[in-house]
UniProtKB/TrEMBL annotation:
Span list, region Disordered: 1-22, 68-95, 157-178
Official protein name in the record: RHS repeat protein
Pfam family, one: RHS_repeat
Top-level taxonomy: Bacteria, Bacillati, Candidatus Melainabacteria, Candidatus Obscuribacterales, Candidatus Obscuribacteraceae
Recorded superkingdom: Bacteria
Alphabetical list of InterPro entries matching this protein: RHS_repeat
């Protein structure tokens, strides 16, 4: 497989032959995904200037402003901040000092440079390819946002109008009326437009833009190279379709149907191509695909780059049959796959903080989602409906993919990477275990904190209770009738993994019963015992 477009350049042996070869490529290729965005259908468009005019950016102080070059007349006075010179006059693509004078440069970590003024406010962002954004403010806050390429040619200007609304004008002669959104310049250099529908348009330091809906999901994006993608979801919140469009690229759409991704051309005709694997997009607009055949993960960033990481280098397999796949960008667990192929998917930031977790069944259908929203944790079912849960204090994921939920009551749960769950009281004592098959075991303790009772079910489903009485353990059935067999010498439970150890000295046997898997019977000296467990 080869890249389609990386950093705006055609690469790979096929590129020189025919761009239409793009239609023959696998979904895991360079992110040729674009879905028609519903939210832009109502945007008003209008002529800004005659097409064909290449505007130049004029970088001046806030009063002089930045404008399209063709809007200046020879008789007009020179801008006080100085004009960005023509490409041949610019040195190394640097930005005119009249605009970024007296600012301090700060790395954004992705090749971009944030420019701050003496008050610490962000004056602009210079992206990895030399393109940049300039920010103007007035007494009411941010007033204009100007985006230009590395040569200083204006691409768009967002300006606050006298009535408080915002309008975006582009160099191709179109304009978009944004209404009256709340505009914020975040400390990390991102610029956010809060829309009336409670969604956001986020311009990140990658040089791209991602639009989020009210649930924080990406619905459309444009990368630094102008590649436009949109994303649609099912009622349960599952990504179901993606389409791509860009300069000199064939429009194509991928739809998830019966667990497979099928390709369609611009006319909606099935091309016969399929992709087996996982496709997702995060709130930063980063697209990730995992090839179901090879396990390779492809990461497509809004900076226009593409990176592929082999599965073997980021997967750890455990003795319990589970697998943890680590995120190639952050190094934190991205997915815990249970033995029967259901899995938990984690969204963990670069700082290690958990943003959300999703649980999918073995067919890949979303069953539930736990999300951090405005400082609180909320649970949703597979259809996106809220599910009442007690207040959650914190959610953490360790390096082995085990998730811990701390409740505000002081108790906590641990959801293991094998699909099992352990529930603890405020003193840290194990109260209950549950396997992914629904089997449960419950534990009780005496006033000294010692195990005194174990409730469980036989393979037949019949309930049993083991009680510690007079130094030994007796077994009772569901009706409270005591077993006629000899008492058990000791029963204990591992507080960390939930394994029950059952010792019968008279029979010279030790039975170890894990939450998942078959019991193991040994002699007292550790040899495998004969007979059924």
């Amino acid at each position: 497989m080869s890249n389609d477009r990386v950093q705006g350049k055609d690469v790979g042996p096929e590129a020189a032959n025919d761009r239409k070869l793009l239609s023959e490529r696998n979904l895991a290729d360079a992110g040729t995904f674009f879905v028609q965005s519903n939210q832009h259908s109502a945007l008003e468009t209008g002529k800004l200037a005659d097409k064909g005019v290449v505007p130049r950016v004029v970088l001046a102080d806030a009063s002089a402003g930045i404008t399209f070059g063709d809007g200046l007349k020879p008789s007009e006075s020179k801008p006080r901040g100085g004009e960005v010179q023509n490409p041949q006059e610019r040195r190394g693509g640097s930005i005119d000092a009249g605009f970024f004078a007296n600012t301090v440069e700060q790395s954004a970590g992705d090749g971009a440079k944030i420019r701050r003024d003496s008050a610490g406010q962000i004056r602009g962002v210079v992206y990895g390819d030399g393109s940049f954004t300039g920010i103007e403010r007035d007494s009411s806050g941010v007033s204009r946002i100007i985006r230009a390429d590395a040569q200083g040619n204006v691409k768009s200007i967002d300006a606050r109008q006298p009535d408080g609304s915002w309008e975006s004008t582009s160099s191709d002669g179109t304009s978009l009326k944004r209404g009256a959104p709340r505009v914020a310049v975040l400390d990390n250099g991102n610029i956010e437009f809060q829309r009336a529908d409670n969604g956001k348009d986020v311009y990140g330091t990658s040089g791209g833009r991602v639009s989020l809906d009210a649930r924080g999901r990406a619905v459309s994006s444009v990368d630094r190279n102008g590649l436009t993608r949109d994303y649609t979801y099912s009622a349960s919140g599952e990504l179901t379709a993606m389409k791509v469009a860009g300069k000199d690229m064939v429009v194509q759409e991928w739809r998830k149907e019966n667990g497979l991704w099928n390709a369609y051309d611009k006319d909606g005709k099935n091309t016969g191509r399929q992709f087996v694997g996982m496709v997702g997009v995060d709130a930063a607009g980063t697209v990730r695909t995992v090839d179901g055949k090879t396990g390779a993960e492809t990461i497509l960033g809004l900076d226009g780059t593409r990176k592929t990481v082999n599965l073997e280098s980021r997967t750890r397999t455990f003795d319990n049959g589970s697998r943890v796949i680590y995120d190639s960008a952050t190094g934190f667990p991205g997915r815990a796959v249970f033995r029967e192929n259901s899995y938990r998917q984690y969204d963990i930031g670069t700082d290690g903080a958990v943003n959300s977790t999703k649980f999918f069944n073995s067919k890949g259908l979303l069953q539930s989602e736990l999300r951090r929203e405005n400082g609180n944790w909320n649970l949703y079912d597979g259809q996106g409906k809220p599910v009442p849960v007690p207040p959650i204090k914190d959610v953490r994921v360790d390096n082995e993919g085990n998730m811990r939920i701390d409740w505000r009551t002081g108790s906590h749960h641990i959801l293991k990477n094998d699909g099992s769950a352990l529930r603890y009281d405020v003193a840290g004592k194990l109260l209950e275990t549950e396997g992914f098959n629904g089997s449960k075991r419950q534990f009780a303790y005496d006033s000294r904190g010692e195990l005194s009772e174990v409730r469980f079910k036989l393979k037949t489903g019949e309930p049993r209770v083991a009680k510690r009485e007079n130094g030994a353990w007796n077994i009772y059935d569901g009706q409270g009738k005591r077993s006629s067999g000899d008492p058990i010498d000791s029963i204990s439970v591992d507080q960390n993994i939930g394994m029950i150890t059952w010792v019968e000295r008279k029979k010279d046997t030790v039975l170890r019963i894990p939450i998942l898997g078959d019991p193991v019977k040994t002699t007292l000296d550790g040899k495998i015992a004969k007979g059924r467990n």
